[in-house]
Design brief:
heterodimer, A: 110 residues, mainly alpha, Arc Repressor Mutant, subunit A, two-stranded antiparallel sheet, B: 160 residues, alpha+beta, Alpha-D-Glucose-1,6-Bisphosphate, Chain A, domain 4, 3 helices, 7 strands, 18% helix, globular, disordered N terminus, disordered C terminus
Chain lengths: 110, 160
């Protein structure tokens, strides 16, 4: 079970890693560019990128003197992991909202 | 062809403490009130996420700058039990208008008891989102929803 979690949700379970993943989804970036948009240090960004790369979600490519990171273009695995997290959060949010609205609903009715 | 099953669908189930009609109407008409705003496709922050309540309706986000970004279309509108929408955001985070590249999300609402509704969600045809080649590599298969369901069960029980 834990192994599954590491292989699947674990990679994007960390909020900083998820933020990096979502920034890379919008635009391929270098470590420095990512670090400027996040409240973490460059070494921390590098560390997270290594984990994402090892997990097959991110690939990198030399561009002159810098290294540019992007989502793995065979991106269904990456997309699937991201969507898994999306639906998890969305259904949890839906449950909270619908039950909260139901309290109002019941009060209005009675 | 076997291509259809190359990427395992995502699925999930939750039970909520409201009747079926209420669950369906909050899920659809009040989509904007519960969708986690951090999940958006456009560059701008989301002002509103909209699911148009009819077959063929649009499913999209409107950014705070007024820009709109499509997510997909409503394929089946069968209140209060069933909803099917497409998700057409590809691996490059772009809307792909080609229906052949559309993944599908089916949501079913069924009565679980008095004032209780089970919501079952399946996101399938994920392989259609890219021009399917070499996709099998690196795909870790299904399973993580099991962990999520355990979390739901715990949260629900703790909530009571």
């Amino acid at each position: 079970m834990d192994a599954y979690r590491d292989a699947g949700l674990g990679l994007l379970g960390d909020p900083t890693r998820r933020a990096i993943f979502e920034l890379l989804a919008r635009r391929p970036s270098s470590v420095g560019e990512l670090a400027r948009q996040l409240p973490v240090s460059r070494p921390a960004v590098s560390q997270h990128l290594r984990v994402l790369k090892d997990g097959g979600l991110v690939v990198s490519q030399a561009d002159g003197t810098r290294r540019v990171y992007r989502l793995n273009p065979d991106g269904v695995a990456a997309l699937r992991q991201w969507l898994d997290r999306v639906w998890d959060d969305a259904l949890t949010a839906f449950q909270k909202a619908v039950e909260a609205s139901s309290d109002d609903f019941t009060k209005e009715d009675s | 062809m076997s291509n259809e099953a190359m990427v395992a669908p995502l699925s999930g189930t939750i039970t909520v403490g409201v009747p079926v009609e209420r669950a369906f109407s909050v899920f659809t008409e009040s989509f904007n009130t519960w969708w986690p705003a951090e999940y958006h496709i456009g560059e701008a922050d989301v002002a509103e996420a909209v699911l148009e309540p009819k077959e063929g309706g649009r499913w999209y986000e409107r950014g705070v700058d007024g820009s709109e970004c499509d997510w997909g279309r409503v394929l089946a509108w069968e209140p209060p039990h069933r909803l099917v929408v497409t998700w057409q955001i590809n691996g490059r985070w772009e809307f792909d208008p080609d229906p052949a590249h559309a993944s599908e999300i089916e949501v079913r609402f069924s009565e679980a008891g008095p004032g209780q509704t089970t919501v079952q969600l399946e996101h399938r045809h994920l392989d259609r989102l890219v021009e399917g080649q070499a996709l099998r590599d690196g795909i870790s298969g299904g399973g993580s929803w099991n962990a999520i369901l355990e979390q739901f069960a715990k949260a629900a029980e703790a909530g009571d």
